[in-house]
Amino acid sequence: MALTNQQKYENWLKKAKDKPTLELLQLMKGDSKAIDNAFYKELEFGTGGLRGELGAGTNCLNVYTIAKVTQGIADNMKANGFSTVAISMDSRINSDIFCVKAAEVFAANDIKAFVTKECMPTPFLSFMVRELKTDIGVMITASHNPSQYNGYKVYGSDGCQLTDKRANDMIACIDRVDPFEVVTKSIDFYQNKGLIEVVSNELEVQYLSAVKAQSVGNAKGIKVVYTPLNGAGYRVVPEILREVGVEDLYIVTEQSKPDGRFLTCSYPNPEKTEALKLGLELLQKSNADLLIATDPDADRMGLAVKARKGYRLLSGNETGVLLTDYLFYRRKALGTLPKKPILCKTIVSSELAIKVADEYGAESFDVLTGFKYIGEVILGLENRGEEDRFVFGFEESYGCLAGTYVRDKDAVVASMLVAEMAAYYKKLGKSLADRIEEIYAKFGTYQHKLLSKEFPGATGDAKMKQLLKDLREKNPTEMGGIKIIKSIDYLIQSEVDLPPSNVLSYNLEGGAQLIVRPSGTEPLIKFYLTAAKTPNENMVIFEKLEKFIKKHF
Questions:
Q1: Which CATH class name applies to 41-199?
Q2: Which of 116, 128, 197, 253 has minimal CB crowding within 10 Å?
Q3: Which residue has the higher pLDDT, 553 or 227?
Q4: What is the pLDDT of residue 184?
Q5: 50: helix, strand or coil
C-alpha cells in the first residue's frame, strides 16, 4: 500500500541526518499543505531533465533526492556496462554540494567521475562528455529559473540530453532506490582511489577553440555590454568576445561574479526585460552597440541592440532569424556553406527562419520543444557521415547552436556570433534592428508572443491536466473569432515523424497560430502566439487570442 504524504514526511523526519534538511522538515510540522506540496510526487524528468525547488521532501531538490537519482542512474549504468561520467555545475545555491554528492555516489558504485573545479556553462558539460568519451554526463543546473530552484540534467555519450526512452529506463531504476540507503564516503577518499578526477584547464582551452572555429568574421569596431547574470558565463564569454576582436567590453559589475542568490534580478532569465535592467542602464550610459546577457548556466542568450531611437530588445525568434540569415549568407560568401545545408528549429519557433534558409536551398527540420531533439538531428547526420551539413539550430526560448562540437544550445558561441554580426552590419552603416526590419520587409512581419499561466503545487498540477484535457475534448473550430484552419494534437498525430508530445497546435486564418503546451520543467502552461500581418493587424490578432486564453484557462 502506498504511503500517504504524512507518512512519507514522518519517514523523512526519522531518517534524515543532515541539519539543513531536518530544520526544513521541522518547519513543516503540522502544515498539511506544505507537506503535501513537498511529498505528493517524486520529481520527474521533463524536456530539461530533473528540476525543482530547493527544500526537504521527494518533490524538492536536496542531498537525498540527488543521491536517489544518482544511485538509480548508477544502477542503470552498471546494468548496461557503463563506467564513466562527466559532472559539472552552474552557479546556483547548493550546486557545488549536489555536484560533490553525485560524484561520491557514482564513485561508490565504481563509476569514475570527471568533475569541473568550478561552475561552467552547460554546453561545456556536453563538450566534456564528447571529449572525454564518458558514458553519460550530469549537469547540476536549473537554467534560468528563480534562485529557489535547482536541477539535474543527464546527457548521453553523444553529449546530447537523454532521449525520452533512455530517461524512462533510468527512471525505472531511480524509482526503486531508497535515498536513505545510499551510503558514500568522502570525495577525498574517492579522489585518492582515482574514482573522482578534477578536469584540467586544457579542456576549457579546447572548448573555446571549438567555439572560435565557428567564427565567420570578427567583432572589431563595436562596443559591447555583457552581463552573465551572476552565472557560469562570467569568465568564458568575455574571453571569447575578446578573442574575436571586441576591445570595448563593459561588464555589469553587480552581476559579474557567480552568485546563486541573484540579488539584482530575482528571475535571471534573459527573456525577461526586468532581468536586463542593469545591463540596459549600462548600455545607455556607455553608448554601446549591443547588450549580451547569458543565463546562469550560459546556454541561453538575450540581446538588446542600438536602434534609430534608443535601444531595442530582440526576441529569441528575432535573434534566431538574424543568425540564420547571417550564417547562411557569410558561409556562402566564404565558400564554406555545404551543398545541402540544414537549419533545425523547434515547432514553437518562427517559421520566418525557414523562409530565410530556403533562399540558400536549405533543408529545414522542425522538432519538438527541447534542444535534445535538435541534438538528435545532428546525431542522425553524424551516423550518416553528413554532420557537416548542419549549419544552425535554434529555439524561440533564446537557445542557439552553430556547429556540432556540442549537442546542446550554447550561449558562448551565440554571444560570439552576435558580436561578429553586429560588427559586420555596423561597417555597412546598419544596426541589427535595421537588419531585422529588412528581413520583415522582404518576408512579412512575423511577430510572436509567449504567455504563461502558473499552476503550483498538487492542486495546480491536477487543474493543469484537466484544462488541457478539456481543450482536447472540446476540439474548437475558432479561437477569439478567428477560424481554425488546421489543428494538430502531437500526442496522437501521424503526419510528421516526431514522438508523441503533450502539445496542441492550431493554425488560424491569415497565418496566425496558437500552440499550447505544459512546461516540462515548471508548473506552467505555455501559450505561443504568432501573427504574420502588419504590426497593427498583429496586435488585434494577439488581443483576440489572449481573450480566448483568458476565458478557457
A1: alpha beta
A2: 253
A3: 227
A4: 96
A5: strand
Neighbours of 497 (CB within 10 A): 6
Sheet holding 447-454, edge to edge: 447-454, 524-531, 513-518, 504-508, 482-489, 478-479
506 close to 484: Cβ distance less than 8 angstroms: yes
**41-199 with 447-552: one CATH topology?**
no
- Cell 542568490 belongs to residue: 261
CB 341 within 8 A of CB 362: yes
With a CB cutoff of 8 Å and minimum separation 6, the contacts of 8 are 39, 57, 58
With b for 16 or more beta-carbon neighbours within 10 A and e for fewer, the 6-29 pattern comes to: eebbeebeeebeeeebeebbeebe
User: Given 88, 95, 126, 143, which residue is catalytic?
Assistant: 143
Q: What is the pLDDT of residue 49?
A: 67
Q: Which residue has the cell 567564427?
A: 215
Specify the amino acid at residue 286. S
Fold of the CATH domain 206-443:
Alpha-D-Glucose-1,6-Bisphosphate; Chain A, domain 3 (3.40.120)
Q: Would you list the domain boundaries of the chain?
A: 41-199, 206-443, 447-552
Q: What value does the mean pLDDT of the chain take?
A: 94
Between 3.30.310.50, 1.10.287.130, 3.30.70.330, 2.130.10.10, what CATH number should domain 447-552 receive? Answer: 3.30.310.50
Q: Is 143 a catalytic residue?
A: yes
Average pLDDT estimate for 480-507: 87
